[in-house]
Amino acid sequence: MNRNDLRHADINLLVVFETMMRERNVTRAGERLFLSQAAVSGALARLRAMFDDALFIRTGRLMEPTARAEEIHARLTPALEGIAQALSCSQTFDPRSSDACFHVGLSDDVEYALLPTLLKPLRSEAPNVTLVVHRVDQWQLPQLLANGDISVGISLAQELPANSRCRRLRPMKSRVLRADSASGPLSLEEFCRRPHVVVSTQGSVTDEVDRALARLGRQRRVVLAVSQCSVLPGVLAGSDLLAVVPDYVAQTLLAHPGLYSDCAPLSLASPDLCMAWRGTHHDDPRERWLRDCFSRHLAQPVERPRVLAVA
Question: What's the whole-model pTM score?
């Protein structure tokens, strides 16, 4: 096929093909593209005729790609990225009239505590856009960005793809949550003695708190690991459990009666909450607007040192 033959090609079919390569499921691909299952199946039939290959073979609930599909995908992905980037350079973006759909990744703590802060102003600026939130953590974020499942993500960040960009939003300062009414701050002795609950998407019962305690020759007892911050009020209520969470999560949870927040009785690291995005979307006006919204409403202003006037 030469370039003149591209007049007869339907780029929409190629987008369906790429989405099927990611999802391996007709229903999920349709949901991702806002198409019916019948429309996706029809597109697949046309793709099979176009490439003279089955492309996808049903294996249980998944549609496994053929060797030809894998070869096409390897060549097609950078081409579609280039087309999208070229089109974005010539487009203006008006958030008030846009009906764009954004796929973003948020860690559980950000989705629970910071997303509500963002949603109202975002809806005011762009009432017709759709925000599709994918749950991520620092381990999932790089892969979701690399695959194109999300265009931007907010989480702890490590080992990001080479072509990605990253910006620090705020430090994640730790607070200790408890549901008892004992007066006075927690001592290190009491902190170690009382049972703990941790929030972990990976199901781990150890984290930076345990490493900080180990450096002091101390340890704590974790009796419960949960995957979501939202369950903490019910879990802590009427118990002697403690939970160490980011400060913005603690602030949100304090709206529940009977919860109290303390400083941790030991020095804990304050890792950066970061916003990372695909390098290919860096100059896209729609994505730039979305990142600006995240920065305006989720970032913590940098504290500047006070300058004392000299008399």
Answer: 0.71
